[in-house]
Design goal:
Elements (H helix, E strand, L loop, with lengths): L2 H4 L23 H6 L8 E6 L2 E6 L2 E2 L22 H15 L3 H12 L1 E5 L4 E5 L9 H12 L3 H15 L3
Helix pairs in contact: 3-4, 3-6, 4-5
Amino acid sequence: MSLKDYIKPKKKEEPAENVRESSAEKAPDPGQVFSGEKKGDYPRKENNVNGIKENNVNGMNSGFEVQSTFNPLADPRPDLQADSKLWESLFMVTLELFGDNRLMTILHGIRCGGTSLLLDGDRYILRPEIGDHCWESEAEYKKIRDSWLKPNSKEVKQALDLLYKEVKGG
């Protein structure tokens, strides 16, 4: 027996299914890739937990935590307990006043940064908490305030006034 008897001739390899043959081929539309609608997209595994889908790409977790429930009106900073219920009431008030979640979303972001609601006479005011797990500095808060709250100051004042009336029973 010769060495040639042990060596099998190479078969012509065909491209694997669902693999693009050249980089010149148009890349798939991201919307189609993520929805799993296009042949040739990446293998995906979907986990459906309480109605929330989590995509795993090639067996790798997408990196986000799946919560069992999500309440957009819940205080995103329950660690700042003193005014947690006030924030939830403020979120509800903004939805009732304006009928959409635009202002609520802005206030939600301000709260995430570490802003508190304080009673100042006969009104509520927004006060930044500076330090651990809150705003890094007064300047950081003012930059966000000037970009997001000031252009909406009339609506913010209306929402804070209505919150005061509801809390004080007026």
